[in-house]
């Protein structure tokens, strides 16, 4: 004999939840699609280097700096150079995201306070 079991029907609450889930997925897909179609061409990074703090250490001084990327383009392997009179120091930052900042430090033997310290980004790679 065949069994006479009834299959339970789907409740209205389940249909509402499924409909809301479908709407959420469609909305997210539309937003991602719109961003992909209307995104501007990749911008080059615009890097500004600022000294934030000077700290004495056992071998001289550390100039802490911040690299600020003012554009949406990402920069990798950012070379930063600091010049203090005849003394030069450099550092490489792995990554500076678009519209973000990254910190680092440069070592000097002389005290940079009261002297002309020049900081600049020398170059970068596009990731």
UniProtKB/TrEMBL annotation:
It comes from the Bacteria. The chain crosses the membrane at residues 12-33. Keywords: Membrane, Transmembrane, Transmembrane helix. This is TIGR02588 family protein.
